[in-house]
Amino acid sequence: MIALPAKIADLDTPALLIDLDIMERNLRRMADYTAEHGLRLRPHTKTHKIPALARQQIDLGAVGLTIAKVGEAAVMLAADPPDLLLAYPIVGKRKLDRLMEVAKRAPVTVSLDSLTVARELSEAAAAAQIEIGALAEIDVGLGRVGVQPSDAADLARNIAQLPSLRFEGIAFYPGHIKTLDDEGRRALAALSTLLSGVVRDLKQAGLPPRIVSGGSTPTMFHSHEVAEMNEIRPGTYIFNDRNTVFSGACAWEDCAASILATVVSTAKPGQMIIDGGSKTFSSDRPVNNDVGFGRLINAPAAVFTKMNEEHGFIDIHSVDESFSVGDRVRIIPNHVCVAMNLHEWVYGVRGNSVEQAWRVEGRGKLQ
Amino acid sequence: MIALPAKIADLDTPALLIDLDIMERNLRRMADYTAEHGLRLRPHTKTHKIPALARQQIDLGAVGLTIAKVGEAAVMLAADPPDLLLAYPIVGKRKLDRLMEVAKRAPVTVSLDSLTVARELSEAAAAAQIEIGALAEIDVGLGRVGVQPSDAADLARNIAQLPSLRFEGIAFYPGHIKTLDDEGRRALAALSTLLSGVVRDLKQAGLPPRIVSGGSTPTMFHSHEVAEMNEIRPGTYIFNDRNTVFSGACAWEDCAASILATVVSTAKPGQMIIDGGSKTFSSDRPVNNDVGFGRLINAPAAVFTKMNEEHGFIDIHSVDESFSVGDRVRIIPNHVCVAMNLHEWVYGVRGNSVEQAWRVEGRGKLQ
Questions:
Q1: How far is CA A358 from CA A3, A18, B306, in A?
Q2: A134 - beta bridge partners?
C-alpha cells in the first residue's frame, strides 16, 4: 500500500483519479441494461486492469470477465471470476502453458480464428487434462481478426472435433461502427442480418451456438437491437473517456476518470505546460477528426494541443481564467484504457476526498 | 529476477530486445565524440530507465545523469551517479520533499524557468540544509519551457540571490530543429548567435555560466559546432529508433532496440496481425510525415499501418515472403523511450542468444 492523503489537494501529480459516484452509476447502468434485455455481461477488464473493480462488476451480475493477455488473466484470478474469456488468439507453447495454469483455477474460454490456434490449444488442454471453451471469431467488418462469416461453420466444426475443446459459440467485434449516425445504424442492421445467417449455418451444422458474444462501446446501449447476440463485452463503460463522448455513447458527466496535473510553466504567453505528457496520457488521438489529447474539466475551451513525454502543451488563448505555476487541472483523457496502463496507482475520489488507492495490477501485462 | 531463456526463440512475446553489440557501439561513439570535443556528457536516462545502463554511461565518462521526474531520480541513485540533473521544473511541496531525500544521497541540480519554482526550491533546500544547483532554462525556439533569452540574466540574478541555491549556468533544448537540412543548419547557426548573447549578458551580470547545457538527438553529433555549449544531455543515442533514423542522426544499423512479436492472425489476405499494439509500441507517430508504427527488420517493405491496444496491423501486400500464425518478427519502434516505459522487462541479446534481462526500474515513475 501507499500513504493515502485524505484530500485531492494533497495528492502529488500527475495522478489518475476515478470519480466513484460516476463510476458506480456507470456500473449500475450497464448492469441494469443487460439485465433488462437478458444479455450476458462479460466486461473487458483491459479498461481498469484492477481485480477489485472486476469483482464489483461480478457482484453486479457479470457472468465472467474478458481479457486479452494471459498475464492479465492471471492477475484477474484475484477477482475469483466465475469464468474468463481470453478474447485473443493465444499462440505459442509458453503462453499456452501459462494459460493452462490459469485454467486450473477458473473456467477458461478462448476466441480464435485459425485451425493452427485451435489445434495448439487443444493439444495444450489435452496435455493438462482440462477442457477449454472455444468461440469461433468472426470478422464482421473491422478486418482485424476473425474468419469470414461464410467460413464460421467450418471453423466451428473443426473446433468441435478437437479433443479437450468445447465449442461454445461465436465472438466478434464490430469496431467498424464508430458512431450511431445513419451509416452506423445501417451497419448495425447489417450486423443483425449477418449474425442471423451465421447462426442458421451453425444450426444446420448441428452446432447451435450457446454464446453469441459481441458488442462495442459506441453501440453498447443498442446491443439488444442486434439479432442473435446474447452476450456483450464492454470495457470502457466503467469510466468512459473523451472518445466515448465523441462516439455518442455517453455525456461528459459520465466520464469517471481524469488526470490531475500541475501547471509547471507559463513562460510562453497564451500557453501553459503541465506535468504530464505522453507517458501520462498516452499519445492516442481522438477517434473522430477532433484535435487534442484531453478535455480540461474546468476549462473546456482550453486546447491540449501537443505532448512530449513529460510535457503537456495547453493552449489557453480561448480561456477566460488565468493560470499560474502550481495551479492544478483535471483532464479527461482521449483513451482511458491506455492511460490506466501508464499509472502504477490510481485514486478513487468522492468530491474532494480521496477514498481509495488501487494498484493497477494488470498494467503492462503484455504477454 | 525472471527465468532467462538462452535463446531469443524461447522468449515469450511481445518482448523488447536490446542488441548489445549495437548498444555498446552507440555508447562508445557518444563517449568518444564528447571526449574528443571536450563536451560534458550528462545522458538523459528517460530512454533506458535502467540504473545498470546508466552506470555503463558513467563508466564511459558521463559527468552525471539527466532525469525528468523525482521518482526517476530516486531510481537512478542505484547507479551511484556523480551528479543528477532534473531537467524539469519541480513544483509542489511533496515533490520537493522527495527531491531533498534524493539530494541527501547525490548532488542535485534543477533546471527551472520561473521565480516561483526557484523560490520554492530554495526554501525546501534551506529547510533540508542542502545546497542545490540551478540552471536557468531558456527557450531557444521550441516554445515549451524556458524564459526568453533576453530575460536569462534576470532569472540568473534571481537564482543567485536565493539561499541554498547555487547558480550553475543555463539549460535549453533545441527541439525545434528536427533534422539538419539547410533550414536546420541555419537554426543551429542562429542558436550559436543566441547563446553567445546570453553568455555575454550573464558575464556582464557577474554570473558567468559554468554549465551551458543543451543538445538534442537530431543535432547530437554537431554539438561541437554550437558556440558556448559545453554540455549535452542526449538520451535516445543509446538505442536509437525509427525517428532517430528519420531525423538523419543515425542509420538503421544503429538501432539497438526492437520488439519481438508473434503473428496471431492472417485471416485477412494481405495483412497480418501481431500480438503487440499501442500497449507495446506506444501510439507515437513518426516525427516526419512518414506513416506507420515501426519497421520490420527482416521485411522493411511491410507497413505497420494501424494499432489497437493489443493488435498490430501489418500490411504485407508489398512483401515477398509469406507469413503464418506463429511466425515471429522484430520491429524497430518509432519512439523507443515511450516503448521502454511500457515494458516491465527488456532483454539484452547478442546474435540469437539472450545474455541479460533488465527490469525497467524507472518505468511509470510519473511523479
A1: 12, 10, 31
A2: A110, A167
Question: Given this model, what pLDDT does residue B1 score?
Answer: 55
Measured between alpha carbons, how far is A102 from A96 in angstroms, rounded to an integer?
10
Residue in this structure with the C-alpha cell 450511431, named with its chain if needed? A180
Cα angle for residues A125, A130, A136 (degrees, 5° grid): 60
User: What CATH number belongs to B21-239?
Assistant: 3.20.20.10
**pTM: predicted TM-score of the whole model, two decimal places:** 0.97
Residues of chain A in contact with residue B337, where contact means CB-CB under 8 angstroms, are 309
What are the residue boundaries of the structural domains of chain A, listed by start? 20-239, 252-359
> Could you read off the pLDDT of B21-55 as tens digits, one per residue?
999 999 999 999 999 999 999 999 999 999 999 99
Nearest CA in chain A to B112: A265
Q: Are A31 and A63 in contact (CB under 8 A)?
A: no
A88 to chain B: which residues are within 8 Å by CB?
A: 264, 275, 310
Name the region of B44 (left: φ>0; alpha: ψ -120 to 50; beta: rest).
Answer: beta
A144 and B268: CB-CB below 8 Å? yes
Which residues of A, range 84-143, sit inside 8 Å of B by Cβ?
88-89, 91-92, 94-95, 113-114, 116-117, 139, 143
Give the pLDDT means over successive 10-residue stretches in chain A (367 positions): 85 98 98 98 98 98 98 98 97 96 98 97 98 98 97 98 98 95 96 98 98 95 97 98 97 98 97 98 91 96 97 97 96 98 98 97 97
Chain A residues 194-213 within an 8 A CB cutoff of chain B: none
| Superfamily of A20-239 according to CATH | Alanine racemase (3.20.20.10)
Determine whether the interchain pair B267/A15 forms a contact, defined as Cβ–Cβ distance below 8 Å.
no
d(Cα B149, Cα B142) in Å, to the nearest integer? 13
pLDDT given at position A287? 87
| Chain A contact for B346 (CB, 8 A cutoff) | no
Q: List, in sequence order, every beta strand (DSSP E) within A76-189.
A: 84-86, 108-112, 132-137, 165-171
B106 CB contacts (<8 Å, ≥6 apart)? Answer: B77, B80, B81, B82, B83, B84
- Mean pLDDT value across residues B339-366: 97
Topology given in CATH for the domain delimited by B252-359: Lyase, Ornithine Decarboxylase; Chain A, domain 1 (2.40.37)
Contacts of B264 in chain A (CB under 8 A): 88-89, 91, 117, 145
Comparing CB atoms, the residue among B94, B114, B366 nearest residue A14 is B366
DSSP summary character for residue A196:
H
What percent of chain B is modeled with pLDDT above 90? Answer: 97
Q: Which of B253, B193, B176, B191 is nearest to B222 (CA)?
A: B191
pLDDT band, very low/low/confident/very high, at B2 (cuts 50, 70, 90): low
Q: Hey, do A20-239 and A252-359 end up sharing a CATH topology, with the first three levels equal?
A: no
Closest CA to A308 of B361, B185, B304, B216: B216
Half-sphere CA count of A161, side-chain side, radius 13 A: 9
* Interface mutation target, options A101, A264, A317, A361, chain B, most CBs of B under 10 Å: A264
pLDDT digits (tens, 9 = 90+) for A45-85: 999 999 999 999 999 999 999 999 999 999 999 999 999 99
Interface residue of B72, B173, B264, B346 to substitute, partner A, most A CBs within 10 Å: B264
For B145-175, the pLDDT digits (tens) are 999 999 999 999 999 999 999 999 999 999 9
pLDDT value of position A2: 64
Task: Return the pLDDT at A1.
Answer: 55
